[in-house]
Amino acid sequence: MSAHLGDRTRYAGASDIAGCPRKAVLGKLQPVAHSIKQQLVFARGHAAQAMFREFFLSGGATFQEEVEICHPSHDIVCHIDFLFRGRNRFHVVEMKSTGGIPEEPYGSWVDQLHVQMGLLRIREGEKAEIGGSILAVDLNKGEYREFNSYAPHPEVFTPLIERGSHILSAMRGECEPNTIPSILCGHCSYRTGCPAHRDQEIPREVTDRVADYESLDRQKKALEKRMDPLKKELISFFGERFQGITDTGIAVATTTVAPGETVDSTKLKKDFPDVYQACSKPKAGYTKLEVRQLPPAPLAKAA
């Protein structure tokens, strides 16, 4: 499916530059076999692109697909998913198939788009009008969102090309590749031994998500405190069995769960250890996340 990208071990691509240099370099020098799950994710992306290709064609749009643009002096290459063009006017569309559309595009998505727009600027010249957008698609939910109004900026493009040059140097063994931690580190095949995680460096986009989670968790607890007394009042009013609809169109139902029995595992283990052992079975572990706001540090006393 990616044959059109050529031998990616010979150049730095826009997606390489937009991500972590260490992951990009190791991915080229020490490739790992993709799992079936990852291959399905790749296939989902191709399916989404093919679907929108048909949408654009049926709408009569004029565009090119998988447009390859090379940097004139570096082994840096990009492949634009969709390039719409008019009279001296170009619009780059980078497609992203994702499970859940974020409120804001990931930084790596934006960087990848800027590499594409910057290389297009070099090819077409300063007089060309160039814009870009990111089209995020969630096939599972049938939802999409376009993050629009991007334009090429030299102050953004230049550092990205420098990063691409660094990736090429690291591929040649001239230096160690830098690390750029992000929310995508959890999906990286080369996380083991990564100096960024050894030093516990937390990127800004992850810090922002921690803050969002902590805020939502506090709101959840506050809502639960408000809901519990309301729940008791409503059950007291409607009784143990009720079905009805309010005049505002809200369905209400109460049901009673019959008393049951449970096993006291502590007592069973103590009094009948053989039975406990015979009836025991493995229980899968899980990762627990705890996020809480620490109290402010005490102010230092004046001398």
Whole-number mean pLDDT = 88
Number of helices in the DSSP assignment: 9
- Which radius of gyration do the C-alpha atoms yield? 27 Å
Q: What profile does the largest beta sheet have?
A: 6 strands, mixed
Helical content class: 40-55%
Oligomer: single chain
> What is the H/E string?
EHHHEEEHEEHHHEEHH
Strand content: 15-25%
Rounded to the nearest angstrom, the distance between the terminal CA atoms is: 69 Å
Stretches with pLDDT under 50, minimum 5 residues: none
Write the layout of secondary structure elements.
Elements: E1 12-13, H1 14-18, H2 21-29, H3 36-58, E2 63-70, E3 76-86, E4 89-97, H4 107-124, E5 129-138, E6 143-150, H5 154-171, H6 195-198, H7 204-238, E7 242-245, E8 251-254, H8 265-271, H9 273-279
Parallel strand pairs: 1-3, 4-5
Antiparallel strand pairs: 2-3, 3-4, 5-6, 7-8
